[in-house]
Amino acid sequence: MSFRAGFEETWRAVLTSRTLVSTMLLAVVLYAFYYPAPYAHETAQRVPVLVVDQEDSGLTREVLRDLAATRGVRIVDTVADMPSATARMRAGEADGIILLSRGVTRSLLTGAPGGGVGVWVKAAYLLRASAIGEGVSAALAGAAEHRLGSAARAFGLRTPVRVIQEPLFNTSAGYKDYVFPAVASVILQQTLLFGVATFFAGRREQGAPPMRRAAFFGAWAAMTLLGVFAGFFYFGFIFWLQDVPRGGNVPALLLTVPLFAAAVAALGLFLGGLFDRSERAMAVLVPTSVPLFFLTGSAWPLDQMPAWLAALAHLVPSTLAVHIFVPLNQMGARLSDVAGMTMLLAGEVLLYGALAGWLLTRRSDTNPR
Amino acid sequence: MNAFARALSAELAHLRACRWDLAMLTLMPAALLFAMGAMLFGGVARDLPIAVVDHDTTSASRALVRAVDASPAVRIVSVGADLPEALTLVRREQAWAIVEIPRGVGRGLARGTAPEIHIRYQASFLSTGTQAVRGIAGAVTAESAELVAAQLSAHALPVLRVTPLTVQVTALYNAATSFEWYLLSLINPAVLHLLTACVTVMALGRELHDKSLGAWARASGGVVPALLGKMLPYVAAMSLWGVVWLLYLTLARGWRVEGSIALIVAGQSLFYLGTACISALLVAVTRETATGLSASAVYAGSALAFSGATLPLDGGSGFARVVSAILPLTHYLALQMGQFVGDAPASAVGPMLALLAYVGIAGGIAVPLIARSARSAA
């Protein structure tokens, strides 16, 4: 079979198989809308808290009004004392307790110790805990500034140094704008991998003869092209539709997206050649999806992982892809900025291509049964 | 032998014979749980590389740089005077944040202008960027207060300490704000959930002949006991892995479960049984293993995102909240996290009932569907 015949046969097989159309095409479209949905509101909002206001003064009431108006937290109730607040938090009513202690205004005015603000959060949910902490600090600073502003100015007092935090690239520090661009590489990899491995495991299950070299390259090219389409569908259309940050470096994508698709397709061809049945491909590969996302280093950085694990993670195309496509798409990076990862990706194309070519074209493997 | 025992022994015989299916219950969960455990072994990020842009280059700015470098969370990899150069380092992922120190930082109060120190951080990798910025901000705030005090006395002004009111945040149940405790608590149940979904779809899917479970159901001698016998090895294996993981977290890593471990273990088994019932329903409806696996990848693969355990869904869309309430992982995590932090046992009743509902509803629809296919094929 020639290159062209291998290419055409693969495309025909994909498009006429309901299983392959649904895993390789429909799933790609579905995930583009389904996956970002729980992150669409971008920041932690309305995290439930209980308030203990021991002072009950003008200032503390102002702090509580400001706090009630912030998006981050929702005041479930104002409670008389700490023990009952703790009991209600343990009953699952809230994720945190805010204590405005007696003397807080005096401490604020005179700098005297004794009064203060205490926040207790269930840090088992880290993100909720930080939402509460940030909300309280901001409301308190705002109220203090407002209350004491004129007096402080009269004395020539002001904050000596202002520390300003600025999120780069994802300028609203939004959660969807952080998670979706990263998870997109995992979605693109897994959908292509499932489809390619399912198809070639099925071929082996049916006892197909080893492929001619030209036909192998034709099939690889056909699957790569599918991956390229899916990649540009995400980076060109879905990223715009989902309105995630875009600093699109299109020329660099024209090089790196085909490399990524070729690496994933080759890995799929190789794995497909190892599985005994077509269903085995998905049964084995689907459960890896969640760990593979975390191994990209998006939630916990690669340089904080044990070195051996980080090295293994680099063998997975999606890990490289996250560190190529997020810089190119979100940070406005140049190709030279992602040169190292791109070289590794090219290496994976050769490695997995060679493994797949060896496995699928060798003579001895005529019938696995 | 009754239908339950027959189905169970048939399944065990199959597992002994099929290396692939056996590996999915042994090697695969071992490898995935081990990888996630190793990944988060550090728990708290240390020495994250950051860059400094110092426009001041006085003893004051150098003191700030030293203070930042002393923060355990970060390590300075570059000190320069050029912001674009530092931004390139961030783009290349060689720095997670940039501290920009303006000219005249130490003379701020004396001059009557408040200098602005900018901390720019990598927000495309928000989780790590935020950890870096917290480490820096604490050090900068503390050190700049010292500097101002020093500058005042240098100008022969009385030392006036403006102590901004501090908000004392106490992290309960995770004092070190460790990612190991936080993320492993969420990832590993999600991984075992997805694994359970896949292995149980495969187990029942194997019995499909000409897109029907009819032949298997007729030979089984009772759909309910046969289904239970078939699923038992899978549910038991995953529950055991769940216990292994809990023992690792508590005994080996020293994390403390404030509530009832027994309740978590029971909830976990119920959760995996419910997952198996959903798989039975998927196979009975789609009558195709591949489609059942695709559906599992969609619903269980993204369940963690919808669980609200990372980003809470209180501000989310109606769609997201409805999907979240439908997915079993949401309820299991509510139960587990509640017990981890020692919520009252009564707060576990709701999640437990929800988990029971998956067994009742998914199983309750799957069984008549399979029984009907047995009759129609007869």
TrEMBL record, chain A:
GO terms for molecular function: ABC-type transporter activity. This is ABC transporter permease. Its main location: membrane. It holds the Pfam family ABC2_membrane_3. Keywords: Cell membrane, Membrane, Transmembrane, Transmembrane helix. Residues 18-357 form the ABC-2 type transporter transmembrane domain. The chain crosses the membrane at residues 20-37, 178-202, 214-240, 252-275, 282-301, 338-360. It is found in: Cell membrane. The lineage of its organism: Bacteria, Pseudomonadati, Pseudomonadota, Alphaproteobacteria, Sphingomonadales. It is a multi-pass membrane protein. One of its GO terms (cellular component) is plasma membrane.
From TrEMBL, chain B:
It is found in: Cell membrane. It comes from the Bacteria. The chain crosses the membrane at residues 22-41, 181-204, 231-249, 261-285, 291-311, 349-371. Keywords: Cell membrane, Membrane, Transmembrane, Transmembrane helix. One of its GO terms (cellular component) is plasma membrane. It is a multi-pass membrane protein. Pfam families: ABC2_membrane_3. Residues 20-366 form the ABC-2 type transporter transmembrane domain. One of its GO terms (molecular function) is ABC-type transporter activity. This is ABC transporter permease. It comes from Sphingomonas glacialis.
